[in-house]
């Protein structure tokens, strides 16, 4: 179960700080997708940790791009070695695992064609897109990180557990994120026009 994999990964975090490089080294065979799933957890609950959105969003983009290209990931040393405050991060990750554990009971291998072949690359491209949305500088706006994080999480859960239904739900989450961002953009534009027009 994904929640157990994530819990064991979090249990290995010791010390005052943790880097993305250390997380990758500990994540094993399916590490890239697992790290993508782990990177969404801080955004599932309303707690802000400075710097996490940029680091984890960039990591998701680069790891999913590597999966899309079917090659080993390349990550800049600046992202790999940026220290994150483990004392703040670990409790948030544990709360995120609580959300994932509720999802676990519904996951099962089904609609396998949606998680393999050509569609696998399309799914990885969708995760890249979700990571770009996650990196958008809209942190103070409610749900601006949560919406794409949920889409990415559902996609990665679907790919890790070979559940095509969760892949579709992940796409739905990303579509709703785009709609939400579009509404925010429209409101900002009309508000600016009203104030300065």
* Number of self-contained structural domains: 1
Oligomeric description of these chains:
single chain
What percent of residues are in strands? under 5%
Strand order of the largest sheet: 1-2
Individual helix count: 9
InterPro entries: ExoD
Keywords: Membrane, Transmembrane, Transmembrane helix
Protein name: Exopolysaccharide biosynthesis protein
Transmembrane segments: 55-72, 111-135, 141-160, 167-189
Description of the structure:
- The protein is mainly α and 197 residues long.
- It has one domain.
- It is built from nine helices and two strands; from the N terminus they run H-E-H-H-H-H-E-H-H-H-H.
- The protein has a two-stranded antiparallel sheet.
- Helix 1 runs antiparallel to helix 6, helix 3 packs antiparallel against helix 8 and helix 8 runs antiparallel to helix 9.
- The longest helix is centred in the last third of the chain and has 33 residues.
Tell me briefly what this model is.
The chain has 197 residues and is mainly α. Helix content is 69%, strand content 2%.
Primary descriptors:
single chain; 197 residues; mainly alpha; two-stranded antiparallel ribbon; 9 helices; 2 strands
What does the secondary structure layout of this molecule look like, with pairings?
Elements (H helix, E strand, L loop, with lengths): L1 H10 L5 E2 L1 H7 L4 H10 L11 H18 L7 H4 L3 E2 H19 L12 H19 L10 H16 L2 H33 L1
Antiparallel strand pairs: 1-2
